[in-house]
Design brief:
The radius of gyration is 18 Å and the shape is globular. By secondary structure, the protein is an alpha+beta fold. It has one domain. It is 19% helix and 34% strand.
Length: 178
């Protein structure tokens, strides 16, 4: 029994990296906050695997701007975390990296006055609309606050021939690539 369990765990460990895929979905803004903050919408680059979905980058669809995401800690929002902030949905939390790409610009745009920005995402699924909650810190030491709830309609998935990972539109690449 123990041998079978260990063999099963080893097989799962080998299959997990192969099953993970990088995907890219685009969304059109439908709520007033989403229209105001994103204009033409947003594109989300994420890893999807056996253990779930992890957003990696948020890209503005209409202009060259992106924010890199890292896992967020609920406790950074203050006592009670996300659940203690009125008007929020309980969803996975990701922090915008202020030092990478246009992270500082995203913080100023999505949550004026904040020095840190967290985004929480409703489930990321093909064909399903998306809600993004923007949360900011209180630079004076108070608890986190909801800066906006952005609703988007699913527009489509970026795909490349041959099953390759999507190209990142923010990266420079040679002109001879497909």
């Amino acid at each position: 029994m123990r041998t079978a369990l260990l063999a099963g765990l080893a097989l799962l460990a080998l299959a997990a990296p192969a099953a993970a895929a990088t995907r890219m979905f685009s969304y059109d803004p439908i709520s007033p906050d989403a229209k105001r903050l994103t204009g033409a919408g947003l594109t989300l680059l994420f890893k999807q695997g056996l253990t779930g979905t992890r957003p990696l980058k948020v890209l503005a669809t209409g202009v060259p701007a992106q924010a890199l995401l890292k896992p967020g800690r609920d406790r950074d929002l203050g006592p009670g975390g996300l659940r203690a902030i009125p008007g929020t949905d309980d969803a996975p939390l990701y922090e915008v990296d202020p030092k990478a790409a246009q992270g500082a610009i995203y913080i100023r745009a999505f949550c004026p006055g904040a020095t840190r920005l967290w985004l929480s995402f409703s489930p990321i699924q093909h064909g399903r609309d998306l809600r993004v909650q923007a949360l900011g810190d209180d630079p004076k030491g108070g608890p986190g606050r909801l800066c906006g709830a952005l609703d988007f309609s699913f527009r489509g998935e970026w795909r490349l021939p041959g099953g390759r990972a999507p190209l990142d539109p923010m990266e420079d690449r040679p002109d001879n690539l497909p």
